[in-house]
Every structure is written in structure tokens, then in C-alpha cells.
Design a protein that fits this description.
The chain is an alpha/beta fold and 137 residues long. The protein has one domain: Rossmann fold. Helices cover 35% and strands 18% of the residues. It is built from 5 helices and 7 strands; from the N terminus they run αβαββββαβαβα. A 5-stranded parallel beta sheet has the order 2-1-5-6-7, sandwiched between helices. A two-stranded antiparallel sheet has the order 3-4. Strand 5, helix 3 and strand 6 form a beta-alpha-beta unit. Helix 3 packs parallel to helix 4. The longest helix has 13 residues. It starts with a helix and ends in a 9-residue tail after the last helix. 36% of the residues are buried. It comes from Phytohabitans maris. Pfam families: CoA_binding_2. This is CoA-binding protein.
Amino acid sequence: MRSPQQILAESAVIAVVGASRHPVKPAHTVPLQMQRHGWRIIPVNPFADELFGEKVYRSLADIPEKVDLVDVFRPAEDAVQVVREAVAIGAPAVWLQLDIVSAEARRIATEAGIDYVEDRCLAVERAVGQLSRLPAA
């Protein structure tokens, strides 16, 4: 299993399940920060059409391209279904944001052989590792 830092370093396209329209919520600020540092963000939210300048998809299954990482901003009880969907689309990694923990989601990811992170923030890990996908200046 890859470390959180390795997952971020090796991911270019991040699907964000539960991406928010509300600019003060972490589900908005975290994906926006990742985008500003060069990651391609694909928002997943059944109640929005565009976020972060990107088309919003209703579900992971609707995304027409390969996803390197599925980032989850949904309650723990929803994480199980999201992980099942991530496995179904062939995503190599799933990341549950801060305060989201699910033993069942972890089991599903582990059995499917995909990387799994929970209760950690993408933006914090990016900052700690000084990671960026932008070309060096």
C-alpha cells in the first residue's frame, strides 16, 4: 500500500465526491486548493452543474475518464457505497477526508486491492509534503 504522500504524488486526476458549492466549507476549499496546485479536480455532486470551472458529474460512474484518486467528503455511512463505486470504476485509491472513518469502507478497499486513506486532509498532506503538480518555475 502506498503512503498518503505517494498517492498524492502519483495522482493527477482527483474525483471529489461531495464537492460543495459553499465557499466556506472544506468540501469547497480543499478541492480548490488542490486545483490551484495543479491537480485536475472532477467534482461529483448531484445538486450542481459546475464547480471550480469544471463540469460536475452526478456519480463516479458518470465520469468519462480515468480517475487516479477518489476523495470523499460524505458522512461515514455514505463512504461504503462511494468505495464500492470507486472499485467499480477502477480507481486505484480512495481517500476519506478528516473525521470520516469506516471499517466497512476500509474492508471493501482492502479486498479490492486499492489504496485507502481515512481521517486525513488532502490539503494538509499536500502542504506537509510540499507537493505540487505545477511545472517547476
